[in-house]
Design a protein that fits this description.
Blueprint (H helix, E strand, L loop, with lengths): L5 E10 L2 E10 L2 E7 L9 E4 L4 E4 L1 E6 L12 H10 L2 E6 L11 H11 L6 E4 L1 E2 L5 H9 L5 E4 L13 H13 L3 E5 L3 H6 L8 H7 L2 H18 L2 E4 L8 H9 L4 E5 L1 H5 L21 H13 L4 E2 L28 H11 L4 H15 L17 E11 L18 E11 L2 E5 L2 E2 L12
Parallel strand pairs: 1-4, 1-5, 6-7, 7-8, 9-10, 10-11, 11-12, 12-13, 13-14
Antiparallel strand pairs: 1-2, 2-3, 5-15, 15-16, 16-17, 17-18
Helix pairs in contact: 4-7, 11-12
Bound molecules: zinc ion (ZN).
Length: 446
């Protein structure tokens, strides 16, 4: 332990065994020991005692649209990863679409990796994309280290990323199951969407009616049937409809390999409070009613929903028009996700241990990074967040780091302030001051 370079102490360290006063010893960017709070400090190590502030493992956000290259005016690796670091996220996995090119061939993956290199303030990995015509590219992408594949069951919002019909979904899923990969799915059924009233205009109630719960429920049912038939591993992205939860619980009880995520905006915002014309709240599937939100919280508590991720999906402000039908859909949540979720979680009697499980441990497990990320324990990367859970702040868009400072959280008072974030033993942000980028590009572990 004589080579320890850093020792972090806190009265409240969140470990897999619970919260306790502890001393976290770091060498070579890795946690080498978790000792009692008053343990002797190795000679020569930098010692930081954060006192009553909480030390928690860096969050792993497996659902981020960085959009770089191609739509860099929407977001980019530099700005997105700064927002992540400021929000306590130390690993993000980039979605294959909204960048041009999308991550659908190994060549395109290399383009994205080249662009991200040197700009990443946190560790970055990549999902691949499953399109109607790229089944032959899936295995090479898997071999090149993507963490899994994303598909849409309804139009994605961008022309270069078409959705899969049921037949093509089966084909892609069979291929992915053949090499032991995971397919992550935007589950809304296009026929239900087409049949729903498409009013357009600025009324949020009309937008909500245009993306009914049944569209999600049906798509989830189809996905479960395909996963069962092919013995494939699937993951439901950004679940909003609480009505799909019984189907998922039942499938899992039958042994179907299905996991589920939801997002901070579905857990913290409600349809009832979205002002008409307020396109910063538009996302697909939509933010639903308060009663639906409680179903999601219950499912997090009982384990039916595994994890919480941002689905950070920005655009330029001019694309957020007051017509909900044509406005860009996507909510920018990277910097605020931890505080937003914690604010609502604590009101419902959850502890920070629960939030860490949903936003760090389980997301690390989803992408197979759970030997390196997602917990404060010996052998893991020293990705650490100093968090003041009882402090509050009011969201000021000017203080956000993502490129276009559009936010659905403006003016809200949230609990929990990220004071500092450490990536592999180096402090990458403290009180709003950033170091040069120190993030690495990650590949799948296995
Ligand atoms: Zn997304």
């Amino acid at each position: 332990m004589s080579d320890a370079e850093l020792v972090l102490r806190s009265r409240r360290v969140i470990t897999p065994e619970g919260t306790r006063a502890a001393t976290v010893v770091v060498a070579g960017g890795t946690i080498t020991a978790v000792l009692p709070y008053d343990a002797e400090v190795p000679a020569g190590a930098l010692v930081e005692d954060v006192g009553d502030d909480v030390l928690l493992p860096g969050l792993v956000d497996t659902h981020v649209h960085v959009n770089d290259p191609g739509r860099t005016e929407w977001e980019g690796f530099w700005t997105a990863t700064r927002a992540a670091a400021a929000g306590g996220i130390t690993t993000l996995i980039d979605m294959p679409l909204n960048s041009i090119p999308p991550t659908t061939t190994v060549g395109h993956l290399r383009v994205k990796q080249r662009v991200a290199a040197g700009k990443a303030h946190v560790d970055v990995g990549f999902w691949g994309g499953a399109l109607p015509d790229n089944v032959k590219d899936l295995r090479p992408l898997h071999d090149a280290g993507v963490f899994g594949f994303k598909a849409f069951l309804a139009p994605s919002g961008v022309d270069e990323f078409p959705h899969l019909d049921q037949e093509r979904l089966g084909r892609s899923l069979a291929e992915i199951a053949g090499f032991g990969g995971v397919l992550v799915v935007h589950a809304e059924d296009p026929h239900h969407l087409a049949a729903a009233p498409q009013q357009g205009g600025p009324r949020y109630a009309d937008f909500l009616a245009s993306r009914p719960r049944a569209a999600e429920d049906t798509a989830v049912a189809h996905l479960i049937a395909q996963a069962k038939r092919l013995d494939a591993r699937v993951h439901v992205l950004h679940l909003s409809s609480g009505d799909a939860l019984p189907l998922i619980a039942e499938a899992r009880a039958e042994g179907v390999r299905i996991t589920v995520e939801t997002c901070p905006h579905y857990l913290t915002l409600t349809a009832e409070e979205v002002p008409d014309g307020a396109a910063e709240f538009k996302c697909c599937p939509p933010i639903r009613e308060a009663a639906n939100r409680e179903l999601l919280w219950r499912a997090l508590a009982d384990g039916t929903i595994d994890c919480v991720v941002t689905d950070h999906s920005p655009s330029t402000a001019d694309l957020k028009t007051d017509d909900f039908a044509t406005s860009w859909g996507g909510i920018s949540g990277l910097q605020l996700s931890l505080s937003a979720v914690w604010t609502e979680a604590r009101r419902r009697g959850h502890g920070l241990e629960d939030v860490v499980r949903w936003m760090s441990a389980h997301t690390a497990r989803l992408v197979g990074l759970d030997t390196r990320k997602g917990a404060i324990e010996t052998g893991r990367d020293a990705d650490l967040v100093v968090f003041a859970p009882d402090e509050t702040f009011t969201v000021d868009p000017a203080a956000l780091q993502h490129r276009n400072r559009v936010t659905a959280y403006a003016g809200r008072t949230l609990h929990g302030v990220v004071r500092a974030t450490w990536l592999r033993g180096e402090r990458i942000v403290k009180e709003g001051e950033f170091t040069e980028p120190k993030g690495r590009l990650l590949g799948r572990d296995d």
